Amino acid sequence: MYNATKPTLDDLPTSKQLLRSTSIAFIATMAILIAIVLPSEYAIVPTGIGRALGLTEMGEIKTQLAEEASADAALDAEKVATKGNAGSAMPAQVQSGTPVANDSAWRDEMRVVIKPGQGAEVKSSMKVGEQAEFDWVSEGGVVNFDTHGDGDGQSVSYKKGRAAPAGDGVIQAAFSGNHTGSGETVVTPMSR
Known about the structure:
The chain folds into 2 domains: 15-66, no CATH class; 89-191, Jelly Rolls. 31% of the residues lie in helices and 34% in strands. The protein contains 3 helices and 9 strands.
C-alpha cells in the first residue's frame, strides 16, 4: 500500500519555513485580489493597476448588469402585482407620444430622456404575427438594450445588446401581448 518511504524529520519543513510559505501565499493572494479581482468583478480600483490593465471596465459592466437585473426583477414583481393593468409599468414620459396617420401605417416618434443607470420601456401592444418596425438613436452616449415581448404568461427575447449607439429592426409578434424595446436617451420612431 505504501509506495514511498516515510520522510524523516529532516525532510519535513520547519515551522519557520511553513510560516514563510504561508505569508508569501497570503501576500500573493491579496495582490491578486487588489490588482485583478476587485477591479474586474466590482469596479473597485484601490491601486490603479486594474484601470491600467483595462479590468475596471469589466467590473463596471458587471455592476451595471447586476443593477439592471435587480431592476428587472423588481419590475417583474410589479407586473405580477398589477397584472391586468398593462400600461402601469410604462414611464409617464413614454406614454405621451403622438401618433401620426400615414396611409394605413401607424407611425409614432417620441423622445425618452433618462439618467445613466436607469431604464425605460417603449411598449407596443401587438397581436400574434403583427410586425413593428423600429429604429432608435442614443444621443450623448451608448446604451444597453433588450427587445422582448410578454403577455398571457409567455415571454420572448428578440435581441439584446450592450454599448450600442443606435439600433433598428422589425419585431414580429410571436404571440399576442406587449412587445418592448428599451434604451437610454433614445429617439424612437416606431411604425406598424
